[in-house]
Amino acid sequence: MTDRLLAVGLWMLGIATVLIVAFAIAVMVLPVDALGTTLPRSGWVPALVGWGIGGGAALVAVGRAATDALPARTAVGLVLLACAIAAGAAIELTLMRWAVARFGVQAADPDLIGWASVLSPMVVLVGHAVLASTILPGPGGVAAKAITIAVSAGVLLSVASNLPGAADGITPLGVPLGIAMAAGACVAVAAVATAVVSIPRR
Questions:
Q1: What is the pTM of this model?
Q2: What is the pLDDT of residues 30-66, one digit of tens each?
Q3: For residues 127 and 83, is the Cβ–Cβ distance under 8 A?
Q4: Is 163 within 8 Å of 87 (Cβ atoms)?
Q5: In which band, very low, low, confident or very high, does the pLDDT at 163 lie, cut at 50, 70 and 90?
Q6: Do 16 and 197 form a contact (C-beta atoms < 8 A)?
Q7: H or E element: which one contains 1?
Q8: Which of 43, 44, 88, 109 has the most crowded Cβ, counting Cβ within 10 A?
């Protein structure tokens, strides 16, 4: 069971990485008119990235204070956090552009875009939680695992709630958004697999 979970986690991490690269390629290849010429709520993207990096640094600092040496598996948590930050930023960037094109408003209104309005910070939070689960010992690590699983479930439900809309057709602007959301979902699955698997500390 452990080997299967590890395999699932590694596969999802690999797919998430490929999707993030595909997102970057899609943004470069698609016409500018398809992507829009403005960056609605663009200030949120650097804020999201800053929060992701700052939170990760704080968790590493806490881990160093709580233990003599960080566990070897911390590297896995850091890679997942990096993917979560990239996927979260990609979702935020494309979702707001899509909302403007679809509804003509620069707003993350749940009545308009549903749970997707909080998807990007949820993906980054998954990265923080899974990193904490690889660093913190004892009850702290158990709590971090529970948070990882709970928030990852929220991410997957949010992404799944957008699948019916894809049946109506995907616009050019929806292509990078779909890729970004898929990357976020893969990060969530990889995070759950990482949190569930018990890797001995060195």
A1: 0.77
A2: 444 444 434 444 557 788 888 889 888 888 888 787 7
A3: yes
A4: no
A5: confident
A6: no
A7: none
A8: 88
Amino acid at 93: L
Nearest to 135 by CA among 89, 198, 71: 71
Helix and strand numbers, DSSP H then E, in the chain = 9, 0
Write down how long the chain is: 202
In angstroms, rounded to a whole number, what is the distance separating the alpha carbons of residues 148 and 129? 5
User: Tens digit of pLDDT for each residue in 134-158?
Assistant: 888 778 888 889 989 999 999 999 8
Picking from 155, 198, 187, 185, the residue whose alpha carbon sits closest to that of residue 81 is 187
CB 183 within 8 A of CB 23: yes
In angstroms, rounded to a whole number, what is the distance separating the alpha carbons of residues 130 and 62? 14
Q: What amino acid is encoded at 141 in this protein?
A: G
Give a three-class secondary structure readout of 126-195.
HHHHHHHHHHCCHHHHHHHHHHHHHHHHHHHHHHHHCHHHHCCCCCCCHHHHHHHHHHHHHHHHHHHHHH
Do 141 and 202 contact (CB within 8 A), yes or no?
no
